[in-house]
Request: fold
Amino acid sequence: MAPSEPGPAVPPTARVEWPDEEAFREDAHARGWTDGLPVVPATPDRVAACLAAAGLAPGVVLGTVPTREVTVTAEVAAANAVMAGCRPEHFPVVAAAVRAHLDEYGNCHSTTGTLSGAAHAVIVNGPVATEIGVASGAGCLGPGFRANASIGRALRLVIRNACRAVPGELDRATFSWPLRYSFCFAEDETVPGWRPLHVQRGFSPGQSAVTVHSVMRMISAWDSSSRTPEGVLDTLVAETRVHGMSGDAFLGDGINVVYVMGKEHQRFFVEAGWTKERMQEYLWPRLTAPTAGPRDRWTNLGAPANILVVAAGGAGMAETWILFPHLARAVTRPVEWGTVAP
Amino acid sequence: MSIVALDPTGRSGAAGGSGGPGASDPAPRTLAPRPDSLAGARLGLVVNGLGHSERFLDALAAELGDLAALDGVVKVVKAGVSVPPDPGDWSRLTEGATVAITGFGG
Reply:
């Protein structure tokens, strides 16, 4: 693929010189360019390698935050990706995540400024996940996987450095939370009969895509008793409705919830021949039924397709993680490659 | 050996940078002068729509009305809690209010 058109003229990003790498590391902290952990210097060569991998010219605009007068170029995103520890082949995924997050309905200003300290889940689908090693199996929501850690961190550094969501300034989180360091995983696309998330959202199986979902809270629905699809789904409904979801006229009925379903729950659906679509049809009327009391809250999901079921995790624990949304839609964008194959 | 790296903020005028406006350099802003008095002012209220924000700002406006002879209140209730006021509401505020109060949270 040839490099994308550069789009509107945007001045190049500043270059800064330090005496050595140790001086850079310390100065990066002093300038507030990090999440508190060490960062890798975004040298021009490293940034150029990222841009080449994605086929992006430096000035290509990945998105804007109008309320903050922020424009995020490919070059700035690549600089943050390098600082987060990304290899060049990770950057096409980062660029897609930045585009998804900066979509109007990704609602960057609200989801990064909120008192609630919402995080952002980056869900990777398609061949790229295997090609660059984005983990989808045991332990995939936690540390230990370079691609997961560095891609999720790259989006967070873009949010901090380019989008100015700095704690105490435009980031007004009361507590914030650890998911704001990094939160990226892939879907396990090997579950028989289940269409991957990006295919459900209109992409072909051979394409790669990234879905960014704002996460206001994340709760484990643990159920080791149920032995049927209906039993597991009823548990998900009950756990979801304890908290409910808040909406916003701006989002209309487009808000989403994500269920990250582990293997010990998946198997009941596979054995019974349930597709994701059948799960969505079962869940939707139960999630949107009128409230029956203070611990049974309504959810404002506009349609069954707003319920996103993602397979991930390892064996052993009978649980599904519920990713409750903040005030944004889950947005999916394609991963586009440049001249460098992984 | 020295090292050169890109400024990740996108602001080319950052300290030590090459100067000049960058992709994310905000337009220069200055704070408006604070009024000496609210006497005769038309008070703008920007209600974010969360929680009891409207009740709180209504009560605040009533308190301010007891302290100063306001010329009126221009209240805007945002159409969405997570987005700015719409252009029509901005016009009502900028054209009809002398000062405005808002807040975040609910």
In short: The first strand of chain A starts at residue 15 and ends at 18.
